[in-house]
Amino acid sequence: MGLPERLPDSSSVRNKLILDLGLICSVQLLLPQSHTWENVRYNWIVPQPHKTPGGTRGRPTRAAVYERLRVQISELQDRLGGLPSPGEADGIWRGIWLEEAHHSTAIEGNTLVLKQVEQLLEEGRAVGNKELREYMEVRGYADAANWVYGQALDPGAWSSGELLSLTELRHIHRLALTPAWDVAPHPSAGHSERPGAFRRHDIRPFPGGMRPPPWPEVSAMVTDWISEVQALGREGEGIEPEALAKVHARFEQIHPFLDGNGRTGRLVLNLLLVRLGYPPAIIFKGDRRRYLAALQSADQGDHGPLGELLARAILDNLHKFVVPAIAGPSRLVPLPALASKRISANALRVAATRGRLKASKAADGTWRSTRAWVDEYLAGRYEREPKAGS
């Protein structure tokens, strides 16, 4: 068990991966340093061809993604009432919980497929011929994620008035690592390095040259890092994605635990996001290489690629889980939140552009429609389309 992307103990695998990643490049755009909140403005005009901010077509630029995140989180908080609690909307959190437990452990090399994860977590059945450690990795991560969601929205007696406490950090690591540790402890761990305790080993430099600090410095550096985390909650105008990326990358650079730093870092990231009113971010296993490349760029001081990856991940969960469940049939929401098996987000965008779907453009340049309007469009779509041979 371990973190292939951040623990250089698996250096032969990681070195090859990093060499492969040298082929990946990213467009580098700077995020504007300040924004002012404003109500979302809709322009009820004849639809024009869809354009993303910056005048490009296709995949939006990094700056456009950041602007969409800013506007759409403002909508969530101002128009839709913010994130519902797990008690209010169990279905939302269940979907996020299952996907996060699957993808975040898969990034570390866990080989359970999503169906096996669902059966393990919902039915308590270990299906398939996998090592016990793999099932326990997923079980531990799921327990920790479930605690994170509830803790973020209702900290109760745990509350210290801070965005994150050292006690919470240690507890998340303990929850996530203990089940697998009990059946397959880290071979280099001393008695004082169990889950929840900082490492007492030095770690070799990561590929690319970044060296985690010597173990005697870890405690003080984590204290400083937690102070940096508190600043995220003092901005007053939402999170700058690259500030969030910097905090996440810094935790991975410190590498405070002997094992499980990647899983713990992503769990803590989501604790911060939910506390600040954002949906959790899920890094999909298919984005593993991009994620590792973004972390390596952050090691060199460039937080743009990681900031963009996190912003896209937050928007994905917003559209997939949160908005469809809370918006209702008559609320204007982004088109990706209205996509279904019957019609894709791109097809909805084309229909809006051509004036066939009732829709409007918001301040971030993207289309909005309602579930009722989409149903109306789908019901009449075949009547509008020309019949074969006509």
Q: How much of the residues is beta strand, in percent?
A: under 5%
What name does CATH use for the topology of the largest domain? Fic-like fold
Order of helices and strands: HHHHHHHHHHHEHEEH
Architecture per CATH nomenclature, i.e. the level-2 architecture of the largest domain: Orthogonal Bundle
Average pLDDT value?
Answer: 83
The structure class reads mainly alpha
Overview of this protein structure:
By secondary structure, the protein is mainly alpha-helical. It folds into 2 domains: 8-24 and 79-326, Fic-like fold, CATH 1.10.3290; 41-60 and 333-390, no CATH class. Helix content is 51%, strand content 2%. It contains 13 helices and 3 strands. The protein has helices at 11-21, 62-78, 90-107, 114-123, 132-153, 166-183, 218-232, 241-254, 261-275, 288-299, 304-326, 345-353, 371-384, and strands spanning 333-334, 360-361, 367-369. A 3-stranded antiparallel beta sheet has the order 1-3-2. A hairpin with a 5-residue loop joins strand 2 (360-361) and strand 3. The longest helix is centred in the C-terminal third of the chain and has 23 residues, at 304-326. It is globular and about 65 Å long. It starts with 10 loop residues before the first helix and ends in a 6-residue tail after the last helix. The model is unreliable at 1-56 (pLDDT under 50).
Give the helix/strand layout.
Elements: H1 11-21, H2 62-78, H3 90-107, H4 114-123, H5 132-153, H6 166-183, H7 218-232, H8 241-254, H9 261-275, H10 288-299, H11 304-326, E1 333-334, H12 345-353, E2 360-361, E3 367-369, H13 371-384
Antiparallel strand pairs: 1-3, 2-3
Helix pairs in contact: 2-11, 3-4, 3-5, 3-11, 5-6, 5-9, 6-9, 7-8, 8-9, 8-11, 10-11
